[in-house]
Amino acid sequence: MARYVTLIRFTEKGAMAMKQSPARAQDFRQAAAKAGVKVEAQYWTTGAYDGILILSAEQPEKALRCLAELAALGNVRTETMQSFDASEFSALAGGQ
């Protein structure tokens, strides 16, 4: 299963409606589940990024489609990286 870490920054529109962010996050979680994507975690952060999503999906296209739809709403900009646990990384790196 592919896993992704997505860094989120509010757009001006999203920052102006920051109070609705938890409700929008719940809507995203529900839409993602319907699309076959598991939201493993959602966090709001301080600093350079306003939030983090951790997603997993059997088909990478499903996760990336959900993130594209999220960005299209105009409240956030995203930066996404595929992530690997220790055993997945070891296999990729030619380890055991």
How would you describe the overall organization of this protein?
- With 96 residues, the protein is of the alpha+beta class.
- The chain has a single domain (2-87), classed as Lrp/AsnC effector binding domain/regulation of amino acid metabolism (RAM) domain (Alpha-Beta Plaits), CATH 3.30.70.
- The protein has 4 helices and 4 strands; from the N terminus they run βααββαβα.
- The chain has helices at residues 12-16, 21-34, 60-72, 86-92, and strands at residues 2-10, 37-44, 51-57, 76-83.
- It has a 4-stranded antiparallel beta sheet.
- Strand 2 and strand 3 form a beta hairpin.
- The mean pLDDT is 95.
How far the N terminus sits from the C terminus, by CA atoms, comes to: 19 Å
Question: What is the strand arrangement across the widest sheet?
Answer: 2-3-1-4
Report strand %.
Answer: 25-35%
Q: What name goes with the CATH superfamily?
A: Lrp/AsnC effector binding domain/regulation of amino acid metabolism (RAM) domain
Question: What's the CATH class label?
Answer: Alpha Beta
* Shape category: globular
Helix and strand layout, with pairings?
Layout: E1 2-10, H1 12-16, H2 21-34, E2 37-44, E3 51-57, H3 60-72, E4 76-83, H4 86-92
